[in-house]
Amino acid sequence: MKTKKIKTKLEMPRLIKSIGKNKSIEKFPLDHYSYSSMVQFSVNPIMFKIKHINGDKIETTNSISSVIGQAFHSAMDIYYGGDSEDPIKRGLEYGMDFLDNYNDNFIEFNKTVPTIQKAQEKFVFLYNSYLNELKESKAEIVTCEEKLEQIVSVQWRGKKLNLPVPLKGYIDKIIREDGRLKIVDYKTTNAFSNPDKIDGAKILQAVMYYLLVLSAYKEAPYSMIYEEIKGTKNRDGSAQVKRYEIVYEQNEQFFDFFFRFYEDITRAINGEAVFVPNILSFWDNETAIVAYIHRLDQPEEVAKEMSRLKVENITDLLKAKIEKAGNMKKFLKSLERSCETAKKINYKNMSKEEQIKTKLLEHGMILHFVDKIEGLNIDLYRFEPGIGLKMKKVEGYVADIEQVVGKTGVRVLAPIPNTTYVGFEVPRADRKFIDEAPVNNGFELAFGKDIMGDVLRFDIRKAPHLLVAGATGSGKSVFLNSIISQLCRLRSVELHLFDPKMVELSMFKNKKSVVEYKDGIQDIYKSLQTFINIMKHRYEVLSKAGVRNIDEYNKKVGKMNYKVLVIDEFGDLIISNEIKEDVVESGETFKDGRPKMKTVRTNISKEIERYILILAQKARACGIHLIIATQRPSVDIITGSIKANFPCKVAFRTSKAIDSQVLLGEAGAEKLQGKGDMIFSSDEGNIRLQGYNF
Description:
Layout: E1 33-34, H1 35-43, H2 45-53, E2 62-63, H3 64-81, H4 87-101, E3 107-108, H5 116-133, E4 140-150, E5 153-156, E6 159-162, E7 167-177, E8 180-189, H6 200-217, E9 223-230, E10 241-247, H7 252-269, H8 285-293, H9 299-309, H10 314-324, H11 329-338, H12 352-362, E11 367-374, E12 378-385, H13 391-395, H14 398-405, E13 411-413, E14 422-427, E15 444-449, E16 455-459, E17 466-469, H15 476-488, E18 493-498, E19 514-518, H16 521-545, H17 550-556, E20 562-567, H18 570-575, E21 579-589, E22 595-603, H19 604-618, E23 624-630, H20 640-645, E24 648-651, H21 657-664, E25 677-682, E26 685-690
Parallel strand pairs: 1-7, 2-3, 8-9, 17-23, 17-24, 18-19, 18-20, 20-23
Antiparallel strand pairs: 4-7, 5-6, 7-8, 9-10, 11-12, 12-14, 13-14, 15-16, 21-22, 24-25, 25-26
Helix pairs in contact: 1-2, 3-4, 3-5, 4-5, 6-7, 7-8, 12-14, 16-19
């Protein structure tokens, strides 16, 4: 690249074809561009206008990291200035004084650095790390912390290029190493950047500083070196300073990027409708930047290039551009990989949270990892969703998450109830089971333990009725046994157990609290008829006592026990369609006066369902509560009426997603792990629990 003498008069460059036909560049509202102002325009045009065009200043806080960085630069200015007999000591003192004199009111501290004293400690660590690791450098210091402001006029690809708006920058350091002029920019950081990633902001800064140094020193710099100093000590003892070098002659397309960005900003500020990308937030970073350089967002140029290169789509056009590129080779390898199948992404070495985040990123969903909560049988990974992310979209990628983490049974919470987070429940390889439920706390029965290991207790009277469902082997019967055992410890509870399978609840029939055990469908039917009468009688007693419910009666009048009716396989009763035949008088008589008889057929299953609904709707206030369970939570078993009158539900693993939908109103129960893994649903939302080993 040849250097031309700097001109004093602004000229319109050929690259910038138009800044507005009716507007003069001499009326342009800025007298120069700086790296920071160009970045600010692309990121926050409102603040750009307030600061750089209106000339106003809003006093805002600076992050403590930024303040420490300013102190470091100030110290480097003293250290490299060479005016002191002991530059190391003087630079250190200057940086410490800078922090000591900085107004605390304009500093945004954080948990890691909560005070100026902590900031000074971090500054000392950064300062010493930098000098210790680079003390053997033999490079000649040309200048340090120099302000350059230049009108740029250069020869570019055989054409004269005059930039109409001058450039201004503060160069950290210029060195001469191996006879070559090099620009150095040091940055204090909490984590090293990835040198294999294309960084739009670094490209912008590197080219701007190249043009400034070229114009000021009449010598083209060979490279730009980024020296990153990490403020936290590496545990493996590795270097605290890393150098990333951009060799200009190997990255000609960086200049294409800068000139287009310069042109777009200039035209936009001058009033044209030009889209300027956010340089700090390029989506699909490498692909977007290379596409921006090659103007793939300009339909006319794309059509022309597709015709010239004989390709049919923009992806093939981009690949063709890559194949023909003779520079940016290291970065273009990364870009080529991103154009290939995502199967080549190495998920094996990633943590679970990285696997989830990367997989969803493949589908255009941005999530920011928050934390991981380890449970008894699952781990909950919590993420903060990116702007515009639809929860329904996340729910549709359960199978993708299962594939990448290598676990079936992943459950997506989008969102996690009562939070702003999205959650992914991933089954653990080492499940932990818990022993018998703890001692009762009155009617507060222990249902299980949540993911934090806390016991969830629930007052069965507040349910007021409980619906339990789950496939064979899911833990439903064990849960029922645990609940019944806890109820048996309460003196004020009478249990009525209905066991159509004849074996599930038989172990309790001789318990003191169990006043009734039935296993035949005819007997259960008759008992439910009796229950209806018991309910009516109880309400008559409450009415005579002038109270509204059993709690008031027990406080003011006397003692009325609670009755809990437990049906283990509700489905068997509902679908049996057993018919009961009774011969009764028809109301007519024969000629000799004898009454005529008729046969009345009663569908016991329908009557049982009707009785249960009557009890569910009316029996709460008089102290009658129902717990019904089924292994078939289908629509013919759990009808709309049943579901509406049983607001509290316990879902164990279901055979199909539709069964979970019927029971809970949402899929997810089919993802449970069995053996006590459950979802407890109430008015407060759904919570995942691990049940007790009865």
